[in-house]
Amino acid sequence: MLNNKLLLFILLFVSISLVHAQPTEEDNPLPNIVLMFIDDLGYGDLGCYGHPTIRTPHLDQMAYEGIKLTSFYVAASVCTPSRAALMTGRYPLNAGLPGNLGPDSEGGLPLDERTLAEALKEVGYRTAAYGKWHLGAVPDYMPTDRGFDEYLGLLYSNDMMPPWVNTERPLQLYRNDRPIEQEVDQTTLTQQYTEAAIDFIQSNQEQPFFIYLAHSMPHLPIYASADYQGKSAGGDYGDVIEEIDSRVGQIAKVLEAEGLTENTLFIFTSDNGPWRNMPERMYTTEPVEPWHGGSTGPLAGAKGTSYEGGFRVPALLRWPGQIPAAQVSPEVCTSMDLHATILKLAGAQPAPKPLDGIDILPLLTEQAPSPRNDFYYFSGEYLDAVRDNRWKLRIAAKADDWISHETMSGDEPTLTELFDLHNDPFEQFNLAKEHPEHVARLRKKMQQFAKETGSALRE
Amino acid sequence: MLNNKLLLFILLFVSISLVHAQPTEEDNPLPNIVLMFIDDLGYGDLGCYGHPTIRTPHLDQMAYEGIKLTSFYVAASVCTPSRAALMTGRYPLNAGLPGNLGPDSEGGLPLDERTLAEALKEVGYRTAAYGKWHLGAVPDYMPTDRGFDEYLGLLYSNDMMPPWVNTERPLQLYRNDRPIEQEVDQTTLTQQYTEAAIDFIQSNQEQPFFIYLAHSMPHLPIYASADYQGKSAGGDYGDVIEEIDSRVGQIAKVLEAEGLTENTLFIFTSDNGPWRNMPERMYTTEPVEPWHGGSTGPLAGAKGTSYEGGFRVPALLRWPGQIPAAQVSPEVCTSMDLHATILKLAGAQPAPKPLDGIDILPLLTEQAPSPRNDFYYFSGEYLDAVRDNRWKLRIAAKADDWISHETMSGDEPTLTELFDLHNDPFEQFNLAKEHPEHVARLRKKMQQFAKETGSALRE
């Protein structure tokens, strides 16, 4: 017979053991997320994506330590809607922001949308955004209103000032919701954002953290800090990219020094293709030169178009121990899928509105095929194209460029193009006439999706 | 006092020690050379050079273990002269072969030129060539006449037969100087060449070896072997490149198994840019499809042109312990420099005629700058362009394509273009008007070099 004291002792012992057997936060903590979202970086701008002269040893290393995605899409080929899709996991039109915001725009990302930062904050993350926001530059819409504990950056694009954009609002660097620099020295931006991110990493290790690092560069006009000027064999643009690469190396070094490499999902990607089809107003105003835009590599089109060069961007993901090293995947996936994947990893609450993103963790960690069947290319209110793995149907305005999109009426002449993206990722050969069956099948998909999203379709 | 016996003993001991202190062949043997020279592989065709969907894990690994060159030039943008320059270390016009040979051509590489194989054979190498030769298909000019102990391959291009080329000579696979297959099954070529190279490695380890592995693919018409057909997300062309990549992996594996990795300089490059500007005669004959040509990535032009896409090709060099890993270099160097470097490494006899190649070993092993000041772009007898690091001057026929070159009279309209290859590696912006000083300086260089080489110049 056991006496009560002994029984109590045993129960206590068993209880304590059970508690210790549970995985604690210390055993298996939620991963930190560093998400770099570079402005107008093109598919061909990094060494590991084939740039002929720009050197990016730190990003090449990141690719080698993780996965390089070669059919990774953003959900718009211009800034604001692409960022809206990343932040909500939803196509821009679904998220209520199909077009670009200007410096004087009212509102921003609709307040009934949940941002990635809000989702992560709910489950205990410390959150910070550094760099370009472009989802609202007025009270209630600023980063610190939308789930970020901290912010440092430009609220919109670095050219949104005279002589490039007509506005009386000065371009200012904000800390949280206040301007701190009246006259921004753009040569310092890449460094300032990086240092803020490093400070945040070093001072926030009690909770998991989410850093959204959205460099203002290489959006035009481009600037590198003094140490990087004139150094690259890739010219002025090369200087800017090589600085970004070098700053990535600084962050990786700090993660390593803090023992966080293994528990940090480090993502590097871009918001849309490069600005190669520069409007004439840019050419004629210093310090922009016509060759200051980035490169799509071999892809057609550029920023603002619904060819591959507008939507397909570099994407590197590193998470040692979880994502096997030295992978290259041509599986189709998107920025909205990153959103869904991060929610899953963090055990976030289910999204309040239907996600267009799909969890791609098995693709990253187990070489599983992409769960995504279709990707839709929007240009503002218009649904321009759809891709379903091999085939892409594009029914879009002939004058498909950055400036035309700002002034489209819907009556423009239309082009119907079918591309075999396996044999012809460069969109050189329109096979619409040879394959009416694919045109019909994909047109039906576009009609269906246009109906679902309330978007416009050209016929 | 020492007696004589003891003195003798001491002298003997010292002598033996001295002999052992000398580096013997066993301590520091001459390196094996595996030189892969792929036919019409474009700058953008490999994963590590940014192809959007073709996967080349073995070549990516090779790049990571060695050096990737991003401003590496061949000396002609078509097959025969490019091969002549590699084999002699001299510009094609200097080596007496400025233009392509056909299946019925008499002669070949002039017999007073010394080939790389001859130079290496003189200092004790076993030598073998597998694949396309294209430097002479008649007695005295065959690979086994020009320094190769062994040969297996097609003596010229794999399209040099009806319906593509008008000839009565059948396309045949040769072993040494005899045809062994009357009807070539081109789907087997990549595999057959690879297996021959592997046999050679496994059975030749008494002497250092030099293997010249010049795949017939991906020259049109393209064929992959059964195991690789329909596998690549890069389509038909992707299948062919992924087979080549996989075969590179097989060779690397055999080198490793034989303990030769550390003592083998493994080089992978191409003979010229890809065949994208396909003549119409190719489009209309099965099994060639218009999208079967490779990619220049972001570079302008293609095979047969003097834009970058014709002359700049992928180049990977791996030599563990000698060439540091994970290097990417935008320094300007050439196939002729490879020749000179290999001669140096092998301690070969001085070249009997002046080399145009320069030893680049310090660039490969110590990150030294390129010793090369200028590179000259020849199109047949014409000197089309010069590059001196940043600037390229091009004075060439307007109709600069593959077929036009075969029929040029010299009276064609001319274009003068100046490109800043740092800011504009894509040759999009002609700065001839803005920088007459660079035009004048480089024009003088072209005039001087045209005089030296006896080449034609357009004005």
Molecular structure report:
- 2 copies of one chain form a homodimer.
- The termini of chain A are far apart.
- In chain A, the strands form 3 sheets. A 10-stranded mixed β-sheet of chain A has the order 7-6-5-4-8-1-9-10-2-11, with helices on both faces. A 4-stranded antiparallel β-sheet of chain A has the order 13-14-15-16, with helices on one face.
- Chain A has helices at residues 4-21, 57-65, 79-88, 116-122, 189-203, 235-257, 280-283, 308-311, 335-346, 361-366, 402-406, 436-453; strands at 32-38, 67-69, 72-73, 126-131, 150-154, 173-175, 178-181, 209-214, 264-270, 315-318, 327-329, 333-334, 375-379, 382-388, 391-397, 414-420.
- In chain A, α3 runs parallel beside α9 and α5 runs parallel beside α6.
- The first copy, chain A, is globular.
- Chain A is built from 12 helices and 16 strands.
- Mean pLDDT of chain A is 92; it is low at 14-26.
- Chain A is 29% helix and 17% strand.
- By secondary structure, chain A is of the alpha/beta class.
- In chain A, β13 (375-379) and β14 (382-388) form a beta hairpin.
- At the A-B interface, α2 and α6 of A face α2 and α6 of B.
